[in-house]
Amino acid sequence: MSTVAANPVAAADLLAPVTAVLQSMSGSGQQPGLAPGLLVRDETGWVPATRLLDGSQLPDLLEYGRRRWKASAHAAASLAWKSYSYWLTMPAALGWTSARRVPLLYPTDVLVHLGNQPPELAIGLRRSVTVAVLASDPLAQHGSPRPAVMRDEAAMLTVLRESVLDTHLHPLARAIQTRVRVGTRVLFGSLSCSIADGLLRSAGMLPRATADEISTLLHALGIDHLIDLVPGGTGALMVRRRTCCLAFTLPEPKVCAGCCLRVHRSTARPDVTPLTSG
């Protein structure tokens, strides 16, 4: 890493390519599970993700899953994780693909909003969040807070893995598993699916959101073996899961598009976005 800032620019400027894609992906200009503009200006009602990892706020996340899907404890945990990891990783995945600018998702810099009114779950970033950029980035030497300047793409993927997995999602998975019996493969299969699905949704706005680009990102995170990218009915790529998020166990069973389970349509209906949004 290198660094420093002579003419500071805000984190919002570094993240502008990400927020532009997010606005294009939504007709309303806002994604329901993310803070407007990604950065939280007023932290009232938000808690740092560290409160999930230390267990103090984790019951609220699990209760969100139970309340939203009327699910059993293990299915509620799986689906709450699926929603959380989907919104958490979307800014980093889009940042990597759109501009090689990656907000580092250390739990101290991630803020979580959990409530009874929509959006019941939302993810935001502190204004002090560090953004990783390449040395060739025109804003590499300008930032407040200063960007983390990476020597190459491999270094950027390494620090992304450290922030999102080593310090955040692996500890969160362990914290969940101390309370609920749900498998690691189930959880990280949903993470792999969420990242791939989010990037495929952005493909119209991001020419680089290709199978190779998605595979590179998932491989760097060590979760590429949990999904396959296959042609869908229209020929466009879709995700085929090798694990299940347990939505088939809901009182009204659902089967996500590309689920590894083969469930007759008379007992379950295809469902994609409701399990990850909101």
Please explain how this structure is put together.
The protein has one domain. The protein is 40% helix and 16% strand. It has eight helices and eleven strands. The strands form four sheets. Strands 1-5-4-2 form a four-stranded mixed beta sheet. The protein has a three-stranded mixed beta sheet with strand order 3-6-7.
* Spatial strand sequence of the major β-sheet: 1-5-4-2
Structural class: alpha/beta
Q: How many individual helices? A: 8
Number of strands: 11
> Over the alpha carbons, how many angstroms does the gyration radius reach?
18 Å
Distance between the termini: 36 Å
Q: Sketch the topology as an H/E string, one letter per element.
A: HHEEHHHEEEEEHHHEEEE
Low-confidence stretches: 1-8, 262-278
pLDDT averaged over residues: 86
Beta content comes to 15-25%
Q: Shape from CA axes? A: globular
User: Any idea how many domains?
Assistant: 1
Largest sheet: 4 strands, mixed
Question: Helix coverage percent of residues?
Answer: 25-40%
Give a brief outline of the structure.
The chain is α/β, with parallel strands linked by helices and 278 residues long.
Secondary-structure map with pairings?
Layout: H1 11-14, H2 16-25, E1 34-39, E2 47-48, H3 50-53, H4 58-69, H5 73-99, E3 101-103, E4 110-114, E5 121-125, E6 131-134, E7 148-150, H6 153-177, H7 184-201, H8 211-221, E8 227-231, E9 237-241, E10 254-256, E11 269-271
Parallel strand pairs: 1-5, 6-7, 10-11
Antiparallel strand pairs: 2-4, 3-6, 4-5, 8-9
Helix pairs in contact: 2-5, 4-5, 5-6, 5-7
